[in-house]
Amino acid sequence: MIALSMNRTDYENDIRSLLMAFFYGEKIVLNGEEWNVCLDVRYTENHTALVLKDHNGRSLEKEGDCHFENYRLGRNDIKNLVYRLLSEYTGMVLPWGTLTGIRPTKLPMEMYESGASRADAIHYLKDTYLVSDEKASLCAIVAENEAKVLKDVDYDHTFSLYVGIPFCPSICAYCSFSSYPLSVWEKQVDNYLDALCKEIEAASTMMGNKKLLTFYMGGGTPTSLSAAQMDRLLTCLEQYFDLAHVSEKTVEAGRPDSITEDKLKVLRKHHIDRISINPQTMNQETLDLIGRRHTTEEVKQAFHMAREAGFMNINMDLIAGLPGETSEHMQRTMDAIVDLAPDSVTVHSLALKRAAFLNQNREQFPVAGADEVNRMIGISHEGALAIEAEPYYLYRQKNIAGNLENVGYARKGCEGLYNILIMEEKQTILALGAGASSKFVFHNEHGHRIERVENVKSVKDYIERIDEMIDRKKNFLLKSENSF
């Protein structure tokens, strides 16, 4: 157990994130009584003193001045100080250095908008945040590719729409999303769709004269709906939202065992042009271990079925660092993915989410160390390049394996516009369904600000309180109508 002791908590989240990166998989507590390693952080005015000690009697100390009068400078100062101490203690160097935010591409994007070059961005990431050469280059390239995709987007007069389907065939061991097993909730699906359609109708007038740019249906597993239920939902969307000029319509088909020919026909009927088929791994023993009730053959069958149905933009999600896997497993997975040749691949580093079954039962799920996961990421990068897919969006999460990242790769013209928009936070995302979080972006001469309006996560509460969910958005927009 890793204990963190502080006399003030201004920078607790940043320090905790660095501890999680250096001691991946360990439980971290604030002011805990039992510990293997304890980090004590003391602030006096603009000075910081750190003391790290362990049960073996080893002790390290560092201190330095921090610019607490400026939050951003103070934040970097304290993170650099803590990083140097933890690096000395563990002998580790983190690939992303002191960066703990989930959207590192925002930094080079801001620099590009001011006329900086890729070399400038790489130097800044390395010098200010101690990012490795490899990750600084990746971040700068992704930001360039994002900028190309976003160059013609009119943020002021457009918005995107997210619709959430929280049901899944089964719950994976690593999952912490608001997902509900279909076997338990099947009788509530139609009631859920009743509520969702009511929210769709109400939301269709909320954005005024703004035009819908992208539509994304996620989950959960949207294809856990029957073909008839999917048809009903998409028909409802078309009734209330003008989808005729939407530039991207995505449905996260997700689990291969939930994909059927009839469902694919429904998606094509409603002009869905981008889907995701997510194996996570192409190693059967891993699929069995993490509770994904499909086979690697079903992945291939679902992919070929989608191609035959006419889908020319198919993404596949993978996870690096799944329990029991090594770089050899990732190589087998990437070989199989390259053979299928999808149009985009999204590679996630495993994140040990607090509520996930995997995290609560770690002894049952041995996971690879940081160096091995980084090798897996390297293999996935080479595999993506083999199908001529370039990195086009990137984000990070708390508790992520090896302090690494999630990267989306796509062939030219197959980039997921919605994925970039949700990461860069420059456009309003109107989100509907249980657990959905709308993100309203307001632009002015000083930049932009972001406000969130969330729906309840519980399916039962969402159904029973749907009028309240609608009123939350309406009331928020009424108060903010002069800011749009």
UniProtKB/TrEMBL annotation:
Keywords: Oxidoreductase
Record bears the keyword Oxidoreductase: yes
SUPFAM superfamilies: Radical SAM enzymes (SSF102114)
InterPro entries the UniProt entry points to: Coproporphyrinogen-III_oxidase (IPR034505), Elp3/MiaA/NifB-like_rSAM (IPR006638), HemZ (IPR023995), rSAM (IPR007197), rSAM_horseshoe (IPR023404), rSAM_sf (IPR058240)
EC id: 1.3.98.3
Gene3D superfamilies with a match to the protein in the record: tm_1862 like domain
Protein name per the record: Coproporphyrinogen dehydrogenase HemZ
Taxon lineage: Bacteria, Bacillati, Bacillota, Clostridia, Lachnospirales
Recorded name of the encoding gene: hemZ
